[in-house]
Amino acid sequence: MYDYNNSNNTGVQNYYQNPQQFDPQTGIPINNGPTGSVQSFAAPVNNIPETTAPKKQNPFGRIMMTICMGLLFGLFAGVGFFTVNLLTADHIKPEPSPSPVLEGTVSSQPNGGQGTYLGIDPSIPTEVRVLTTEESDITEVVADVMPSMVSITEYYTVSTTYWGQTYTQDGEASGSGIIIGETDDEYIIVTNNHVISDADDIAVTFIDDTEVPAYLKGIESSMDIAVISVLKSDLDESTIDTIKVAELGDSSSLVLGQNVIAIGNALGYGQSVTTGIISALNREVTTSDGNTSTYIQTDAAINPGNSGGALLNMAGQVIGINSNKIGGSAVEGMGYAIPISSVKEIIIELMGRDTLIEVNEDDMGYIGIYLQEVTPEISAYYGIPEGIFVSEVAEGGGAEAAGIQKGDIIVGFQGSRVTTDAALKKLIKYYAVGDVVEVTFLREEDGEYVEHTVNVTLGGKPER
């Protein structure tokens, strides 16, 4: 056997300069290095005599070698991953998580003080700063404005003629309204004109489910606006205590994407609430009756029965009057509302008028004309203004006495713009024989239509 401790083995001894000691039986070096370290050894092959017997393999040595290699691999791999992560950290960023709502008084500032903020408060340490989001809970806003909303029921009569026989049938339709004013004697409500245009009678239901009659104050058919009123004498004190007048906002300051709330008597089931955003502003739309105006477009659901209800901002202010007449159910996610700023002056003027009580049919007065409605199609074809064309003047009637002539086109009655037969009939039924009313008409003079206003004393129904 080859003796590793023999001093004559100068080749091996000279090869290892470190005075390493070896186990005489196994040839494994004895650990003389630092604690926990292992030094490998292998003698040069050309210095080992050919007669040397093969060394016995020790399992413990193999195990220690495997452990050492594993530790070295893990160390290099960890350093590599750390380096890659360090170099790419600025390029790969996690998706931000939704920020909670923080709006109001801060009582946990580092200096122990109080402060109101919206957004990032510089006095809060960086690690606890959060971005604020718009308040998504609208329960308080809705609870505050709901006493200003009413449901409107229109009771009407439909006449149908078959084979010379006329049949009538009673019907009713639902709409919405907004309480916008109060006097000593009444509450004043704004709605769409088309909600009450065919009504024989109007009823209003308040937040406590009390239903009472309502009376017309005035309409502006071209803007689809009507103002009605409810007498306080028809209400109990308990109902009056629940009523609140709505606050009108400024629709001219709206921006796209702004959150809005729509409230109305959808499908006649009672008040319901929907939410959405401002989808478009100054959207020009032509309605089925031929009137073209600009509207607020929203994706808040506006269904049948919502007409006349309120479109509100997140402060609970009325910024629009909803109208299901525009668009209707033909499309989804496109509701329209009349901008409140564009009709505010009209509403104020209508509010100041006397409340109209419908007169008995036998006592109702007549202007004294035979008429033909000038529709948008007729207007475009003949080049004449829309309105009520006077085809004949009744002899001895109020119109003749006031100077109205055949060919004139009536466009106004008692300060309200009227361009349809239905709108005129709707207003005149509140006036009796002998009442004096204001009639506005257009007359062609030198190739142009000139506006005139006259006072007409209403007479009885013309005979023909």
Key terms for this structure?
464 residues, alpha+beta, Thrombin, subunit H, Pdz3 Domain, 6-stranded antiparallel beta barrel, 9 helices, 20 strands, elongated, disordered N terminus
* CATH fold-level assignment of the domain at 142-351: Thrombin, subunit H
Radius of gyration: 45 Å
Number of helices: 9
Q: What would the principal axes of the Cα set say about the shape?
A: elongated
Query: What is the CATH architecture descriptor of the domain at 142-351?
Result: Beta Barrel
Measured by DSSP, the beta-strand proportion falls in 25-35%
Q: What would you say this structure looks like, in words?
A:
- This protein has 464 residues and is of the alpha+beta class.
- Among the domains are: 142-351, Thrombin, subunit H, CATH 2.40.10.120; 361-457, PDZ domain (Pdz3 Domain).
- Helix content is 18%, strand content 33%.
- The protein has nine helices and 20 strands.
- The strands form four sheets. The chain has a six-stranded antiparallel β-barrel with strand order 3-4-5-8-7-6.
- It is elongated.
- 27% of the residues are buried.
- The model is unreliable at 1-18, 32-56 and 89-134 (pLDDT under 50).
Topology (elements, then pairings):
Elements: H1 10-15, H2 59-88, E1 103-106, E2 115-118, H3 139-145, E3 149-162, E4 165-182, E5 186-192, H4 193-196, E6 201-205, E7 211-220, E8 225-231, H5 237-242, E9 259-264, E10 272-286, E11 292-298, E12 310-312, E13 318-323, E14 335-339, H6 340-351, E15 369-374, H7 376-382, E16 387-393, H8 398-402, E17 409-413, E18 416-417, H9 421-428, E19 436-445, E20 448-457
Antiparallel strand pairs: 1-2, 3-4, 3-6, 4-5, 5-8, 6-7, 7-8, 9-10, 9-12, 10-11, 11-14, 12-13, 13-14, 15-16, 16-17, 17-18, 17-19, 19-20
